[in-house]
Amino acid sequence: MAIPQDLPGAAVAYAAAGIRVFRVRPDKAPFANCSRCRPPAEQRPNPFYIPHRPEGCRCTARTCHGFHAATTDVDLVRRWWAEQPDANIGAPCALNGWAVLDIDPRHGGDQSLAVLEQRVGVLPGTVMQITGGDGLHIVYRTPGVSLPGTLGPGLDVKHNGYILLAPSVHGSGGRYRWSGPGRFVQPEAAWPAVLTPQRRAA
Length: 202
Ligand SMILES: [Zn+2]
Ligand SMILES: [Zn+2]
Hints:
Oligomer: single chain
Helix content: 10-25%
Strand order of the largest sheet: 6-7-3-5-4-9
Strand content: 15-25%
Number of helices: 3
Bound molecules: zinc ion
Radius of gyration: 18 Å
Shape: globular
Number of domains: 2
């Protein structure tokens, strides 16, 4: 699918395509939870707080708990970005069916990928996104099991976490974009089995 170049339009396009998104501030500071979901700080007792886990939240504010608020509700997404038109577009990985290799060349990620591919062979081609910081996201379908958080320096696995989607703006000022003609397609390639931790024989 073609991705609109404005953040509000793109966010709506992703949601309409069934991709769960949530707002991320340009400085990555989280949007405030509602009072029922805001744990009491020491200086600021909060009598409304109801202890609960983010994934079990039943509150109706639907901005709380970072990526746990991610939604495909187009009307809600439209309201979120009307409120904050420069919000970046976050997408939780596993919840969207993705497992993502995150290569950060500033921390040696390209070197780590080369070392990894020497060991396990060249990784299957799939959907890729160029991050605004000259990094790379290699997007596979999730294997549905837990994955290690990192495979080497500058080579992280985004699975339980989230990634930003094009045209989000990186801290360095560059914009995220999908590789090739810049269109987004759902990944068809499965997460490489060689990168899935094997269960040890008892
Ligand atoms: Zn809440
Ligand atoms: Zn909550």
